[in-house]
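Dear V.,

Thank you for sending over the compound details. I've combined the ligand you provided, zinc ion, with the protein sequence from our construct and run the structure prediction for the complex. I'm sharing the raw inputs here so there's no ambiguity about protonation or stereochemistry in the SMILES, which I know was a concern on your side last time.
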Amino acid sequence: MNQLYETIDQSIMKHLDAYTEMVKQMYEHPEIGFQEFETQKMLSTYLINAGFDTKTGVVCETDFVAEYKSKKAGPTIAFMCEYDALPEVGHGCGHNLIAGIGIAAGEALKEIADEIGGVIRVMGTPAEENFGGKVHMAKAGLFDDVDAALMIHPDTRTSVGITTSALNPVKFEFYGKNAHGCMPQEGKSALDAAVMTYLQINLMRQFVEPNTFIHGIIKDGGKAANVIPAYASLEYYFRAPTMEYTLEVTNKAIACAKGACEACGTTFETSVYECPYEDTLINYTLADMLMEKFHALGLEDVESVDESCIGSSDVGAVSYVCPTLQGMIKIAETDVAGHSKEMAAATISETGRKGLLDGAKSIAYIACDLICDPNKLQMVKDEFAKSKK
Ligand SMILES: [Zn+2]
Ligand SMILES: [Zn+2]
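Below is the predicted structure of the protein with zinc ion bound, written out as structure tokens.
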């Protein structure tokens, strides 16, 4: 086994400058969700030249799927590459580094694939921050035959996993009747219905389960003070530890809107205005493997799975289709904010380069273990089947 790890290390070291150059290119030319055309071109071209059978625009316009089928049968391991940036702060979430890590791990595994067997899939999953590239790719079945999907996200600490909240983004639209501001009795205020709904949802907060997050805005509250608004709208994010409970909370909020409309004589409609995200199903067998690899690489202060359900990720969608691992690797100090220019700068720093190296090695080692040790893979799959229930 040591010899296999050595080949992985050599492959990553050999191409490390090329990976860091790609990370730097993305840093200098950040592209936001579903606009990642240049990034897609650069990454997919690299993978084509590295000998992967590569397709672009498979489900989303800016995705890619690069596959290498080895000469021997074996499991299919996916490395997920995110590469969308944020407005204002560019790669402030460090997704450029995720892409570098995924490609490095994929290329390293390809070096030993003909010897150990299996299929390697490097998946370009766009628009994690807002439009859920992975949700669409998972829905289209691209992860159905994957035995394990792996990725490493840069962070201000090193940990072997993070639970995330299920997210349901719901828009409420209220319909009333216009009237002159001095003849309000002839109108029905959609704004009043929206405000009452907003207040009623606030009152509901006390009665929801812990780790439920409800955040909303008044998107449209009318156009002029002297016109009774016939239209108003609210946009909400409902988040909770499971999608089931998130939908239950959504239904309670819909009941608030019903009551408000009854009082105001208005009507309303709801719609899901952005992509809903599942919570992330943790695979603790994979998390334990990552702990072992991080320790073997000499990483310090490695935290176990963070169960606090902060934020949401489209990784959740994948985690319900196949065993999934999202580890975090420290590239910046704890006072650096998650979405910031400082975090973006860390991706091209010396610690960023070290994060790429250790991140890529750790998931390539795990992939190698899963292919070479069918019992381990079975443990991962058994846990997945059990936790999905
Ligand atoms: Zn991120
Ligand atoms: Zn982010």
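A first observation: The mean pLDDT is 97.

Warm regards,
I. M.
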